Amino acid sequence: MAVNINGYDLSNNSGLAFGTSTSKINTNGQLISPASPIVFGSKNTGSGAVVSQYPWSVNSTTVNVNTVWTSNTTYTCPVAGVYYAAWSGICQGGAWNGYGGLVKNGGLTGYWAWSTNDAWDTCNFQVILGCSAGDTLAWAVNIAPSPVGASPGAYDSNHNMMTIWLIG
Amino acid sequence: MAININGINISSTGTSLSVANGATTWLGVSSGGVVTRPQTPYMRAVLSGQGSFYRALTVTFGSVISNVGSCWNNSTGIWTCPVAGYYLVTMGGLASGSGQGVTGYGYFYIFKNGSIAHFSHWNNATSWDYCSLSAVLSCAANDTINFRIISGPADNSGSGGWYGGGDHGQFGIALVT
Description:
The complex is a heterodimer.
Chain A: E1 3-5, E2 8-12, E3 15-18, E4 24-26, E5 31-32, E6 38-42, E7 50-51, E8 60-64, E9 69-70, E10 74-76, E11 81-92, E12 96-104, E13 107-116, E14 120-131, E15 136-141, E16 154-155, E17 160-166
Antiparallel strand pairs in A: 1-2, 2-3, 3-4, 4-5, 6-8, 6-17, 7-16, 9-10, 10-15, 11-14, 11-17, 12-13, 12-15
Chain B: E1 3-5, E2 8-12, E3 17-21, E4 24-29, E5 35-36, E6 42-46, E7 63-68, E8 72-73, E9 78-80, E10 85-96, E11 105-112, E12 115-123, E13 128-139, E14 144-151, E15 170-175
């Protein structure tokens, strides 16, 4: 027998099921949330290209639950919560410095930097941040609203990745 | 109609679910089936204002941006886990190279209960090198987590460190599950 709360059923459907959603606590006690908003992808729009770009175009996604990533550029938080965001790629040095950043609602909220005489620097940026429902997240590589250096930017052609998840 | 279990209130709009204790929401399931845990303990901080070349046996921050659950003590540089679980820990920043006229190498660590859990190393001849490290730690309640950045060999006798100005050094800890 389900427990009905204002038309919303808590039921035993191979575990504790939440209404008609796909989320449940399964029979092993594990919280399953297939609708959890996750995007993972990379920029693959130019072979051999080095780009400074805002918003950084991530056109090739392998995970994009409920299309939280739109226009190849923007993640929209479906709910208030704690989010994890990470960007990784190779950034062009050679006596050039540069920056990349995470942009929240159009304003810079965190950034990374490189400054190397080597041709390329591998950059791996991670941040944990709180967001409200409807907040947007995007990436900027060496162009405002990120800080800006003299570098041409980061390498396109799948030599990069980004991911954003709800974690709490 | 909501269900009240000795003060814990389970309620619904008809399309979403909320589990709350008084005014504090413990868990939500949105109309789209997204599960949220608003009391998730997490912190986000930046080195901002710590100066360069920053190195410390126990890292503290010039700016703590978020500290939900008050698990991070910025006076001691210690995170205390409120419950057993898996914690995501991240750190990243610019490490000095010998081109700055300082020691061009060092180590950076994630500690658990005062012992090294994970570490990495930079060794850079040029100006600055962006370094980052992340880990998932299995922790018991009251376990502690902290960060360390040292310059040179293990005795921290070097002259280099991380760029401590602006928001170049980003750190975070969160209970994941």
